[in-house]
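One-letter codes give the sequence; the fold follows as tokens. An example follows:
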Amino acid sequence: MSAKTLRTRIVEFADRTPFVRPVWSYYRSMQQKDRSRFDTIYHCCTQKTASQWFRGVFADPVFRDHTGLISVPYIDLGLKEARIDQEFGSGTIATHLYIDYPTYRAIPKPARYRAFFIMRDPRDAIVSWYFSARYSHPLVKPVDELRPALQSMEFEDGMIFLIDKLEAYGSFTTQFSWLEAKHDPHVRLMRYEDLAADNRAFLASLLDYLEVDLPETAFDTLYARNNFQTLTGPRKQGEEDIHAHNRKGVAGDWRNHFTARIRDHFDKVMGGRLERLGYTDG
């Protein structure tokens, strides 16, 4: 387990455990240097869009001390079944909400809030899903059903099987639904590709959007604890470990895995809609 993962788990344990929370909250309040002007922030996404990276950033004491926001991770995975009928409460950042845009709009919201959604090339998401479901992800639903199926298939058959599953789960339609948010003043659409290209620049842009003003030393600490190199140790970004949760951390890796047969099936399922998301067939 990486230091970041351990730190995130300790922080989240302290936030949600009744006999620890009062002491932890008091300690954090003594460290607090600034407070967010937003009552709630919503981090929305689909799976395989670096959701655990965001979770670690938002649970980091540096972020907490300069916003006063408590990270509340959303653990339900069903995109089509997701329903959120209550506010998350003032002073929270709802982390990795696996929801479509209509579900987000239906969430009761406070007076001051901000949201963002992470886009990703569906082809890269499929590849990430494949290696995660087959090798590295804990056996929770639906991975507990996908893994034995994928292990029984050749790679091409497994990828085609997974494309159909992700279509059924709503992974692709969820991304399309968020295109409706382009003119929503409370929402910004961001891209996984920008995070993969430059962790530091993306983090700076994210904090700017959320109006989190960190001193340079605090930003450097937050970045140092949450960049790809820190998460993977000696393995550099782009070097693959199919058994690791952070498998590779680059965009465009689908080109290394999509055969003509896989690509034909993907195109059939997408029905020419890919460019609407801002991605090309090249």
Observations:
- The first strand starts at residue 40 and ends at 45.
- The domain at 3-277 is CATH 3.40.50.300 (Rossmann fold).
- The beta strands are 40-45, 70-73, 92-98, 113-119, 187-191.
